[in-house]
Amino acid sequence: MHFGYDDYSRARQGRDVPVVWEADKLINPHILICGKSGTGKTHLLRRMIASAAGGVRFHVFDVHSDIRIAGESRVVFSEATRYGYNPLVLDTDHHTGGVRRTINRLVRTLNRTSRKLGDRQEAVLRALLQDVYFLNACYDDNPKSWCKKEIDEAVRKTLIDARRYPELKEYYPTLDDLVGFAERKLKAMYLGPEGNGVGNRCVTALEETNRLTASLKRLTGKSARAGDEEAQGLETRISAAKARALTAFEEYLGSIENGREIDEVIKYDSREVLKSIVDRLKNLNALGIFRPTRPPFDERAAVWVYDIKHLPEDEQALFVHFRMQDIFRRRLAQGVQGEVREIIVSDEASRFFGDEPDNIYNVIAKEARKFGLGLWCASQAPTHFSEDFLTTVGTKILLGIDSYYWQSSCRKLNIEESVLRFITPQKTAAIHMDRKGEVNARFKGVQLAG
Predict the structure, then answer these.
(1) Distance, CA of 442 to CA of 431 (rounded, Å)
(2) Closest residue by Cα to residue 241 from 211, 215, 209
(3) Is 428 helix (H, G, I), strand (E, B) or coil?
(4) What is the per-residue burial (b if ≥16 Cβ within 10 Å, else e) of 62-91?
(5) pLDDT of residue 247
(6) pLDDT per residue over 211-221, tens digit each?
(7) E strands of 18-115, at which residues?
(8) How high is the pLDDT of residue 254?
(9) Relative orientation angle of helices 360-367 and 313-334, to the nearest 10 degrees
(10) What is the pTM of this model?
(11) Which of 74, 271, 414, 439 gets the highest tally of CB atoms within 10 A of its CB?
């Protein structure tokens, strides 16, 4: 990929020395492009993708719907299109996958990219997910059970309409399954599993039994210390207390329907907490981006563009994080690669970046190179990224940073302000490339190609 010409060689020596990006000669294929609006980030991204697209699959997250590439396969994601990816598909790797780890990733991503769950809400959501996986015969202690087929909405509807429920266990559960299960649990807490109005009767009867038993013990103790006349009165009260306690115990026994009533109440905490989770899951399902209807990307196209312009920013973050995790897990499953196979392009990456070590941007930057996965990020300024991320990315391209960010950018990148002053948007840039076998590489002034 040709960026342009070395400014020093052209201006001082009269020689045209091309500045070229060659993935196999760099420590990793990751790129960070920084520049304020109007400096040519989108134009450069288009040129870079078009130049590198050949034997490499690009996944482009387009937040403005303006990254257009010849021969691209573009899918628009919105509540109207209803294309999405099932977030409950398991990672089948014995070391990184399984039910528990998938649940952990799902909960962490929800907390990071949208309103954080409370401790009780998180516990209830984990319990719901564990139960739904169990019902679909996915067991955390049995890796063989992690391998299922992915279902789409049409197949799921056909099986349910035909009441072919056992066949659903051949597939991963979906968000619809999770919502339906959570709603049934909420209904049971109000009405009972069969809708017979005794949902909490078992627990209430047991509590009443315990209360009356405690009262009976107090009366018995008091009787042992009382005189003859007082004892006779207490005996009458004790007999009545025993009768009430036995009646309450019989009520408790009669209210038992599945033997798990107490455990269910403990697991799902309260109706209020469970209802808040049901509402949260319904809202999540309504987004459409987690429907199990895979987008119709053209497998022959080298560039897949995920047009997420129509999603609100928090929904964009959810979608990008889940999809990037899925791409990375798939690359892990392919094993170590000798060359770049796929590249993720994230426009406005600062919207989705986080400093946490397990943020998917950090994970890919640190671990994905050997699995053939590259990450190209575009943003306004390098200050939006952590020092760990900046020192990991093999190529950094500065196209013109707003002066407001100059001081902080110089500190982050360990450069002089003169590097930033050199840049003329759309004409010159400062480019840093860490090549294999080199140390202490510096930013180079580049006269950009047209």
Answers:
(1) 8
(2) 215
(3) strand
(4) bbeeebebeebbbbbbbeebebbbbbbbbb
(5) 72
(6) 666 776 776 77
(7) 18-20, 31-35, 57-62, 73-76
(8) 59
(9) 30
(10) 0.80
(11) 74
